[in-house]
Amino acid sequence: MIPSAPRLSATLALLLVAACATRPPVRPPVPAGEAVSRLAQEAAGRKSLRGLARVRIEGRGQAGSASQVVLVTLPDKARLETQSAVGTAAVVVVLQGDELRVQNFLRHEYLLGRATQENLARLAGVAVPPGAMLRLLLGLPPLPVRTGDPRLHQVPVEDGVRIETVDERMWQRLRLDGTGRLVEGELGEGETALVRVHFEDYRPLDVGEFPFTIDVEQADGAARLRLRYETVTLNVELAPTLFALPPPQDDQTRVLPLDGAAR
């Protein structure tokens, strides 16, 4: 059956809308010599984030996905709320400075420990230094990229530019495409590679473009974290009380050290 003219026009319109919705924003090419400056400028424009994401964890005896409310304020504050099926907070994780606190409402547990990559691995599967993890949540390279850093090394390649930087014992290798978008990277410490990261699905926001899909994979392939943002708002003012998670004052919740908590 051949659709009538009005139905055919509507069908074509829907196809065009769908095609436009999936097409990434167009950016002009950027000279390799300007890629570092653009990356540093975009990073300087991201201070905080409020978003809703679908997070999937695989490996280290964990597997599953959940919706999470994500709140981040650089350099050292984050709050992640795992949502239950009815939209209430099932688990709340708060990182502030060198402390990591977790309240599991389903298991009636409150966990307290140091903010280390080992404790983050217990929660998120992948072992990433806390500062690097917060930057990744903001769609940034794991380590800052500073223009004029004499230790920074960049090499133009056919598909963009490759950048290497160091920060004390930490190092990173990044690849930017021909338009200056951050595509992938690797983070390591000393002679050991820690994680590989991938950035996809760039969409325009008020302060530039943002990667709505972020993959973090352990370098040895033992675990993987995939973050798919549904909504993102950058540079919002987040109240300090959001990053406070005091121990509950009830007799039903067990208070445990995070290092000794069962997974």
List the helices and strands and how they pair.
Blueprint: H1 5-22, H2 32-44, E1 48-59, E2 62-73, E3 77-83, E4 89-96, E5 99-104, E6 109-114, H3 117-124, H4 130-137, E7 153-157, E8 160-167, E9 170-177, E10 182-189, E11 192-205, E12 208-218, E13 223-234, E14 254-257
Parallel strand pairs: 6-14
Antiparallel strand pairs: 1-2, 1-13, 2-3, 3-4, 4-5, 5-6, 7-8, 8-9, 9-10, 10-11, 11-12, 12-13
Show unreliable segments.
Answer: 7-22
CATH superfamily: Lipoprotein localisation LolA/LolB/LppX
Shape: globular
Q: At CATH's second level, what is the architecture?
A: Clam
State the distance separating the first and last CA atoms: 58 Å
Keywords:
263 residues, alpha+beta, outer membrane lipoprotein receptor (LolB), chain A, 14-stranded mixed β-sheet, 4 helices, 14 strands, globular
Put the structure in a nutshell.
With 263 residues, the protein is α+β, with helices and mostly antiparallel strands.
Account of the 3D structure:
The chain is of the alpha+beta class and 263 residues long. The chain has a single domain (40-251), classed as Lipoprotein localisation LolA/LolB/LppX (outer membrane lipoprotein receptor (LolB), chain A), CATH 2.50.20. It has four helices and 14 strands. It has helices at residues 5-22, 32-44, 117-124, 130-137; strands at 48-59, 62-73, 77-83, 89-96, 99-104, 109-114, 153-157, 160-167, 170-177, 182-189, 192-205, 208-218, 223-234, 254-257. The chain has a 14-stranded mixed β-sheet, covered by helices on one side. It is globular. Residues 7-22 have low confidence and may be disordered.
